Each structure stands twice: as C-alpha cells, then as structure tokens.
C-alpha cells in the first residue's frame, strides 16, 4: 500500500478547491467531403421567411434526393410547419444560429446563447437535435468562434466549396451554371430557402437529374463526412418507411426486407427498425441500445453493469444530460479499462467516478503531475 504523504493530500485539496477545466477541441472547419466517390451534398440555409421550402421539398421528393438544411431559431418560430415538413421528409437538419448574426462580432456568451436558443426551438418544434453540425451565418468564423462552437457541442463547422450566390437573386440558369461548372466528388453546395433565392428551385430541378446522368449521387453532410453510422432507428411520430429510406440513403424495399415488414403502411411508434447498411456500417464492438422514453444514462449504465463515464466515452457524448429517444448507444464491455479525457475533467473526478484512488490512476499512466491532462488523452483505469 502506498503511503499518502502530506504533499499528496495537499494536491488533492488544491484540485478540489481549484479544479482544472479541460477545454473541448475547437470545431473543425470543413469545406467539402473527403470521399473519392461521386457524391455531393446539397445544403440549404433557412432564414426568417423560408418562402421556397415547399417547392424545394417537392423537387427533392420527386427526385428521391436527400439534403441537409441549416436552420435558424427565428425561422422555426416564423414557419414551424415548414420546418416539420423538412424533418418529416427525412432530410438532415443542423444549427445555423437563432438570429443570424456575424459570430465574429459576438462574445462567447452571446454565441452560446444563439446556439442553445436554436437547439431548444428546433427540439420543441421537431423533437430532433441539431448537433453535431453548425454553419456560421455569412460563413464568418475565426479561431475564437471555432473554439466556442466546439465547446458548445458542435465539433463540425460546415462551410462549402460551391457558393451559388443565389441569395443575390441570380437566375435559375446562373445558379445552375455555378454548380455545374464547379462540382466535384465531395462538393458541399450552398443554397438558400428564402424569397431572395428565387432561382434556386428551378436550378436544382435541372441540376439533380443532370448530375445523376453524370454518375453523381446525393447525400447528407453527415454521410459525406462519414459521421452517420446508425444501424437501427426507433420509429417516431410522423415517420414513414419512405422518409426513413430517404434519410438513411436506402430503399423502402430494403427496409421491408431487413425487418420482415409485409404492410408498408403499418409501422408503430416506438418500433425499432434495422437500417440496412449501404456504406459498410460502423463498429460492432459491444452491445447496442436504443434510448427509450424515461431513460437516463445512469439507468442505462446500471442495467448493463457499466459506468456512466464508460457509456459517455464509448459514444463521444459531450453532455450526458442530452440523450434523446431513438438515439442508438454503444454499450461498452464492462471490463473496459480505458477512459478518454473530456472537457471539464480533472484526475480527482475521473478517479472518483471509476472507484480508484488518485495515486493509482497517476501511477497507471506514469503521470508526474495530476494537473497535466488534456481533452482527448486516453487514460488507463487500473482494475
């Protein structure tokens, strides 16, 4: 047994009195996908009016094409039914701020308020979360913006490599040409839903079939970045097999076959569907669990005999309070003995959460100073 010297207890007291906060990594600034496949992502920024949402959704539906919509809180308040239509059609949604300010002119507190107000508004409107994707209003970012956005739980700030400039009132032909003259594998194409982008609906009506003819396919930002790896989906109010097939890049026939469904109109809220893999899927380590109404990370951890921190680590959860019904969680092996440092962690809390002493944790990782840990660092948890 290790003798605990006065210095050891002094360190513990200092850490309790002045816990060192480890900050999250800055949000990654992304302009295009890294895929070599001929895939592109159509993206639409929604502002306060959303005039063209209906026409855009109609065209995407007719062409069986999925897209990503970056939503504002104020837009959701002004046209909530249109926002719900986006989700009901199976498209991806992401955070575009509440009131569309230039984030480079805001304080950290103001930025976080813009993000959280939008998240709350969209969640109450659609039941869905917006993280992990954010797009800065005007595309305006700097190092401080990326750090604050990352701290707020949005690890990916999505820019674009094709700016259609549709908001300037460009004609259908001009928007079409800006896309067709610059498109390549992995392109992220910026468009808008507002009345000022009057040429956009007509342009995508021509762009989609032409790019398909050239061998391109359309997907969401998450999929083009390799972030979407869910293999199951819990049916929610408003879901249809058609909207789910579009959301996950598969077909109604593949869904019915994978789930033994004989009546495509008869799926039940709460039913867990297997999503057939189209991209090879993700890791199969550990067990999977679909979050049900009333679940907490604590109750799930207790059921599976693992720690809350182990589930948080296995699923890269930034805020343990924010799990949602239908979310697919990976349940780690109860014998897991590694932990990745998260924002806000200090060694005392990690040791306490895993039932070991600070000295044991420091010795297992050859750490000379308990202050020197950082987000992303993988620690060995002694048995």
UniProtKB/TrEMBL annotation:
Keywords: Hydrolase, Metal-binding, Signal. GO terms for molecular function: hydrolase activity, acting on carbon-nitrogen (but not peptide) bonds; metal ion binding. This is Peptidoglycan/xylan/chitin deacetylase, PgdA/CDA1 family. Residues 1-24 form the signal peptide. Residues 231-275, 287-331, 337-381 form the LysM domain. It comes from Salimicrobium halophilum. The lineage of its organism: Bacteria, Bacillati, Bacillota, Bacilli, Bacillales. One of its GO terms (biological process) is carbohydrate metabolic process. CDD domains: CE4_NodB_like_6s_7s, LysM. InterPro entries: Glyco_hydro/deAcase_b/a-brl, LysM, LysM_dom_sf, NODB_dom, Polysacc_deacetylase_ArnD. Residues 38-219 form the NodB homology domain. GO terms for cellular component: membrane. It comes from the Bacteria. It holds the Pfam family Polysacc_deac_1.
């Amino acid at each position: 047994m290790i003798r605990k010297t006065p210095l050891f207890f002094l360190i513990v007291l200092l850490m309790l009195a002045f816990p060192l906060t480890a900050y999250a990594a800055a949000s990654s600034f992304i302009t295009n996908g890294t895929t070599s496949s001929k895939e592109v992502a159509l993206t639409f920024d929604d502002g306060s009016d959303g005039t063209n949402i209906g026409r855009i959704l109609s065209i995407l539906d007719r062409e069986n094409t999925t897209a990503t919509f970056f939503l504002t809180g104020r837009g959701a308040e002004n046209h909530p039914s249109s926002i719900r239509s986006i989700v009901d059609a199976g498209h991806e949604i992401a955070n575009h701020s509440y009131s569309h300010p230039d984030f480079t002119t805001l304080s950290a507190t103001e930025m976080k308020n813009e993000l959280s107000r939008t998240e709350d508004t969209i969640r109450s409107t659609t039941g869905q979360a917006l993280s992990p994707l954010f797009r800065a209003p005007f595309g305006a970012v700097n190092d401080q913006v990326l750090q604050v956005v990352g701290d707020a739980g949005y690890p990916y700030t999505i820019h674009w490599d094709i700016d259609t400039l549709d908001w300037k009132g460009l004609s259908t032909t001009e928007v079409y040409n800006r896309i067709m003259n610059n498109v390549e594998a992995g392109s992220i194409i910026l468009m808008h839903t507002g009345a000022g982008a009057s040429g956009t609906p007509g342009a995508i009506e021509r762009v989609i079939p032409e790019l398909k003819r050239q061998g391109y396919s359309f997907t969401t930002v998450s999929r083009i970045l390799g972030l979407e790896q869910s293999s199951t989906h819990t049916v929610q109010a408003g879901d249809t097999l058609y909207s789910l097939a579009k959301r996950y890049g598969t077909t109604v026939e593949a869904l019915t076959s994978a789930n033994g469904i004989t009546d495509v109109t008869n799926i039940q809220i709460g039913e867990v569907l297997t999503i057939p893999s189209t991209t090879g899927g993700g890791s199969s380590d550990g067990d999977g669990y679909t979050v049900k109404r009333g679940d907490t990370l604590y109750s799930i951890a207790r059921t599976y005999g693992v720690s809350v921190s182990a589930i948080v680590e296995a699923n890269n959860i930034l805020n343990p309070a924010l799990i949602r019904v239908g979310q697919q969680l990976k349940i780690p092996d109860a014998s897991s003995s590694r932990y990745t440092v998260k924002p806000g962690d200090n060694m005392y809390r990690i040791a306490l959460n895993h039932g070991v002493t600070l000295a044991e944790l420091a010795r297992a990782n050859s750490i000379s100073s308990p202050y020197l840990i950082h987000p992303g660092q993988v620690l060995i948890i002694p048995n």
